[in-house]
Amino acid sequence: MKVLIIEDEEEMLQNMKQTLEKEDYLIETATDYDSAFLKIGVYDYDCILLDISLPGKSGLEILKELKKRGISDGVIIVSAKNSLDDKLEGLHLGADDYLPKPFHMAELNARIKAIFRRRNLQGDTFIEIENLKIDIENRIAFIEGEELLLNRKEFDILFYLASNKNRLVNKTALAEHVWGDHIDQTDSFDFIYSQIKNLRKKLKDHQAQVEVKAIYGIGYKLVSL
Amino acid sequence: MKLLNYTTKYFAAILLFALLIFTVIFYFQMLDEIYDSLDDGLENQKILVINRAKKDPTILHKTSFEDGYYTIHPTTYSEIRNVKDSYRDTLMYMLNEKDYEPVRLLETAFRQGDHYYKLKVITSMVEEDDLIEDLLYSILWLYIGLVVGVLLLNNWVLKRLWRPFYSLLNKLKNFNIEKEQSIDFEKTNIEEFQLLNLQVEKLLQKSIDSFKAQKQFIENASHELQTPLAISINKLELLAEKEELSPKNIALLASVLENLERMTRLNQALLLLSKIDNKQFVEEENLNIPEIINQIVYDFSDFAKHRNIEISISSQDAIQKFMNKDLAVILFTNLIKNAIVHASLNSIIRIKINEQKVSIENESETGKLDHQKLFSRFYKVNTRKNSTGLGLSIAKAIADKYGLALTYTYDRYHLFIVDFTKNSQAT
Hints:
The complex is a heterodimer of chains A (225) and B (427).
Chain A: E1 2-6, H1 10-21, E2 26-30, H2 33-42, E3 47-51, H3 59-69, E4 74-79, H4 84-92, E5 97-100, H5 105-119, E6 126-129, E7 132-135, E8 140-143, E9 146-148, H6 152-163, E10 169-170, H7 171-179, H8 190-205, E11 210-215, E12 219-224
Parallel strand pairs in A: 1-2, 1-3, 3-4, 4-5
Antiparallel strand pairs in A: 6-7, 7-8, 8-9, 10-12, 11-12
Helix pairs in contact in A: 6-7, 6-8
Chain B: H1 3-55, E1 70-75, H2 77-80, E2 86-94, E3 99-112, E4 115-124, H3 128-173, H4 191-240, H5 247-277, E5 285-288, H6 289-299, H7 301-306, E6 310-315, E7 320-323, H8 325-342, E8 348-353, E9 357-362, H9 371-374, H10 391-401, E10 405-411, E11 413-419
Parallel strand pairs in B: 6-8
Antiparallel strand pairs in B: 1-4, 2-3, 3-4, 5-7, 8-9, 9-11, 10-11
Helix pairs in contact in B: 1-3, 4-5, 5-10, 6-8, 8-10
């Protein structure tokens, strides 16, 4: 999988690069309009992470140019502006997703994977880790071919953790992803724990070869046993 | 008191005073002139009588006025030696008026041959009281005329002259800096008003600019903070994934991350507030309010269950309101979240929805909250560490934007009401 990151903020760029390299993607980077099109002219990318506020020509200009050239790489806009106008215009110009900064790495990861799935429609829509198999389209999880009965939230948690397997998922990222953006200002995320507890029990009961590991104070991680 | 009435009042007072002085002076001058003229006449008659007496000595014995205007009494030199012409006022019975009326009398003496005579000449005189009365009436009429004139002048001329001023005043009264409207100044040829308009315009422009700049500043500052926050959080997340970290260090990291996230929330709340202020939520649609509230309650159900709080919703059929969807969701989310966070454990939150209003009621250990401060920014009842202190002020800002009344009352339960009937479709 090839990913191009267009971002003028060096540190931000390095963060995204490091985190995506862990997923074994091939990462290229660009910092402005011209360097971006030097890269785009040469390779086809499966996904482009695009910052809107670039020096000189903005990210929206890049989108327009991509549309003009008929390049349909999956574009995720990452923007610190979180403005509705930018979002609407970006999506209108053919971007696939809009991720406002600051975001959690787990969320970035999940969004990129969603892009890959959407772009390879004929490709498999399953995630397989050890004896766990998740049918994403039908929202069903199996262990050794046997269906794991999960409620909506439990499935969302498992799916999110599986998308970030072996990665530490921040509990805020998990809460926002599963319970919605507005959950983030609640007192604590202790309520997540009861869902995790149920999920763990179900995984264990089915002798799954994966488990949800708590990383104290930060979040959770799906690891192989 | 209005400016017009003020000028009228002062004009009336000044006129009254000026006219009084004028009347007194005028009266005495007039009187003086009349006496002067009468006395001239009497002197002339004196000469005529003396001349006539030279030709017709019979009149020298006319000792009473009866049908004439003079009397002559023979006298001696010693008596008149010191007599000079003397004018004085006296009374005389007038047949026509059947009353004593003032007359002017000239008393003098003359010599004819060797004889001396005392001569009195009279002439009827203006009646002083009549004169005063007449004068008073004319002055009164003049005064009334002038005051009425001034009033008309004020109401017509001054009103016309001051029109740019009143128009400016009216526009300033209706001016609302938050509505981002500009004022059209009425064209005027009056230099002072031109200057006034110019200065007011400058002043307004300055206030509007600084108001905008302030809003823009908050928005920009929040924007600028997003990137460093994002970098820090992501770097810490990468660090946390490193295997070699001890649980102690992980806990340290967790605490830093938590606070950075808290800062992010605060920053986003500020950004949201300034976006509402800067009217960046334009798209509006008909929203089904019960549907939105049900969704929010569903999103928060796990959180509520965790605190063992039951949420009951009683709602009428689909209630449609025309609003921006994001803002409507944020408004009700903040209110419901607020209720869940502050509700006592194991209690019930009651949400009632009808055509007029949405009310959200919760029980809490804290008593009545401060009405004044409740919706102000950064007001916190207790120092919950994850509270931004901005949730209710955001709700209030949204309610204000749509002209909805967001009120709080306390009667054993905390009750928040969003009243749609006051929806004036502002902005």
